[in-house]
Amino acid sequence: MFFFFSKLLFFLISPLNWIIGFLFLSLFSKNKKNKKRFLITTIVLTLFFSNEFIFNVFVNQWEYKAIQIDSLKTYDYGILLGGMITFDDKINRINSQRSIDRLIQTILLYKTHHIKKIFISGGSGSITEPDMLEAKYLKNYLIKIGIPKKDILIETESRNTHENAVYTAKTLGSNEIKKSSFLLISSATHLPRATKCFYKVGIYAKPFATDRYGGPYKLQFDYFLIPNAETLSNWIVLIKEYVGTIAYTFAGYI
Predict the structure, then answer these.
(1) Tens digits of per-residue pLDDT, 146-200?
(2) In CATH, which of 3.40.50.620, 3.40.50.720, 1.10.510.10, 3.40.50.2000 is domain 69-210?
(3) pLDDT of residue 6
(4) By C-alpha distance, which of 172, 177, 174, 97 is closest to 138?
(5) Cα–Cα distance between 7 and 233 in angstroms, integer?
(6) In whole angstroms, what is the distance from residue 172 CA to residue 193 CA?
(7) What is the DSSP letter of 113?
(8) Sequence-ordered list of residues with C-beta below 8 angstroms from that of 112, at least 6 positions apart, any chain
(9) What span, in angstroms and rounded, lies between the C-alpha atoms of 250 and 20?
(10) How far apart are the first and last CA of the chain?
(11) Pairing of strands 85-88, 93-96
C-alpha cells in the first residue's frame, strides 16, 4: 500500500502540476477577484520554481557533499542503489537516466580498489513494469564490461529506498554486516534519506554522493532572473526527498 501511495504522491508534488492547476482555476473561475488571485499565484509559482538561484540555495542545504575518491579507504562493499536505468527489450539494451552517474562512479571505485565488491540493490520501482528488475540488468552489464561475476551481488525485491535497505540487510545477513565495511553510493539528493534507512537496519555505511544538482553560486544575469525550464523539473526531485523523508519518519522507516 505504501508503494502505491508513494507513486500517487509523486504526481501530486510536482510544481508543474500546481502551476497548471492554478492556471485552470484562473481561466475557469467566474469570480473576478479569485480569477486574479489564481493568475497571480500561477505567475509567482512559475517564477519561484524556475529560478536557478533559489533552487540552488535549497538543494545545497539538502544534498550530501561530494568527496574526493582518493580520500577514501578500501571498503568491503559498495552498495549501489537502483533508479538509474530502463531496459529496451527490442534492442536488448539498458537506457540510462540522469542518475547513471551512480553506476559510473561505482565502476571507478571498483577499478581503483576502493571497494572490493559491488552490491546492487534494486527491483522494479514501476507499477506498470513489475518484471523490470534493475539489479539483474546492471549485473549483466557489469559482467559484460569485465567485472568478475564473483564480485557482484544483487537483490531484486526492493521497490523503494526503505526496501533497498531491508532486502540488502536480508541478503547479506547479520554476520556479514557485522564484519564488513560499506560505502553507500547514490545521488546526492537521495543520500540523506537513504543513509537513514540503512542505519535503521544496522548497516552503517559511509555515504558517497553522485550526480549533484547543487553547485557554486554564479554572478550571472540569467542565473538570478531568467526562468529555467530544467530548474522547474529539478524541483520535483528535491520535493520528493522532502516529502519522502517526512513520510518515512512517520512510517518508522528512518
Answers:
(1) 999 999 999 999 999 999 999 999 999 999 999 999 999 999 999 999 999 999 9
(2) 3.40.50.620
(3) 60
(4) 97
(5) 17
(6) 21
(7) T
(8) 69
(9) 30
(10) 18
(11) antiparallel
The domain locations on the chain are: 2-63+232-251, 69-210
Which amino acid would we find at residue 29?
A: S
Q: Could you give the maximum distance between any two Cα atoms of the chain, in Å?
A: 69
Give 244: exposed, middle or buried? Use CB within 10 Å, 0-12, 13-18, 19+: buried
**Does the predicted model carry a pTM greater than 0.85?**
yes
Distance from chain centroid for Cα 226: 27
Place of cell 525550464: 229
Comparing CA positions, the residue from 106, 58, 73 lying closest to residue 211 is 106
**Is 138 in contact with 104 (CB distance < 8 Å)?**
no
Distance (Å, whole) CA 148 – CA 64: 30
Sign of torsion, CA 177 133 210 251? negative
On whether the CB atoms of residues 214 and 63 are closer than 8 A, the answer is yes
Owner of C-alpha cell 534494486: 122
Q: Which of 41-45, 126-130, 163-167, 206-210 has the lowest mean pLDDT?
A: 126-130
How many angstroms separate the CA atoms of 52 and 36, rounded? 26
- Residue linked to cell 475557469: 28
The H or E element that residue 140 is part of is helix 134-144
| Residues across the chain | 254
Question: Which of these, 57, 80, 68, 103, lies nearest to 215 by C-alpha position?
Answer: 57
